Amino acid sequence: MKKRLHIFLLVLLCIVFQTAAVHADLIFEPEDSFYEKHADACEYVNRSYIVNGYDGETDVYESPESAEKVMTVKNREKYYISFVYTDRNHVKWGFIEDGQENSGWVPMDYMYPVYNSQSFYEEYKDKITPDEGIIPNVTKGDVIYGWTYPGSETKYKIEVMEDTFDYGSTFTDEEGHQWGNVGYYMGNRDFWVCVDEPQNPNLPVREIDEEVKEAPEKIDGVPGTSAEADNGTDKNIRNEKADKQTAENENAAGTGTENIWTAALLVVLTAAVTGIIIKKFFGKKK
Predict the structure, then answer these.
(1) Comparing C-alpha atoms, which of 170, 184, 84 is closest to residue 134?
(2) Residue 70: which residues within 8 A CB-CB, separation 6 or more?
(3) Closest by CA position to 150, among listed 112, 197, 107
(4) Burial track 246-278 (b if 16+ CB lie within 10 A, e otherwise)
(5) Model-level pTM?
(6) pLDDT tens digits for range 190-203
(7) Which of 107, 133, 150, 185 has its CA 20 to 30 A from that of 251?
(8) Are 148 and 182 in contact (CB under 8 A)?
């Protein structure tokens, strides 16, 4: 009986792994035709940015290879960008959504990142050390504060759910306070806790240089801004690129269909083998 139970659990585990493998590529991926065709060339950035257009706004396009505008965003508005694509002109494009089913690609030269934990690390990486440790005098049930970065304006309460609270790297600020970085805890990712005063919400706020660089007036290859647009050839160049890319995409589409059928076949085979094993070991004996 134990042998049968072990086999059954093993088969069940295989099904779970198989299901995870089939759906793993869908996590965090936007439902966008251009992204689907160029996913391997896109960089996952997972950051919030603020619009910084040349004339107070910037256009969002259907794709980096299209002159069709899908919406216009205003300066100082904040948007989440999941992936960035770099085209042949070395122009970086970010994929954004407005929360109202509108989405598209925007030139990253017209966006600047919101200061966050990643920005802090880039600025102070030479002063951050990989020293692991435990927050002293904190036990299960206590409430401490998590900070986006040491001395950030944004902070939130965190209830300690275990007897100890660990951190993975440290930073000492100008006031002499020691901070510990936590990669993940109860749904919260990449935040900082003041090791010396974890329960103090009134620590000094760090001054951040929020000076924004002036946006470029022209970006080669971007409709309405590039030098080519002045003589009317920019759209023609983009159409030629789009025609060439269409031929490449037709070949890629066949490969994508094959991958879907392969995944479906693996699921069917797994289910069939599972049924045979269960019938063999749990079926009624004649």
Answers:
(1) 170
(2) 60, 61, 62, 102, 103, 104
(3) 197
(4) eeebeeeeeeeeeeeeeeeeeeeebeeebeeee
(5) 0.62
(6) 999 999 999 999 99
(7) 107
(8) no
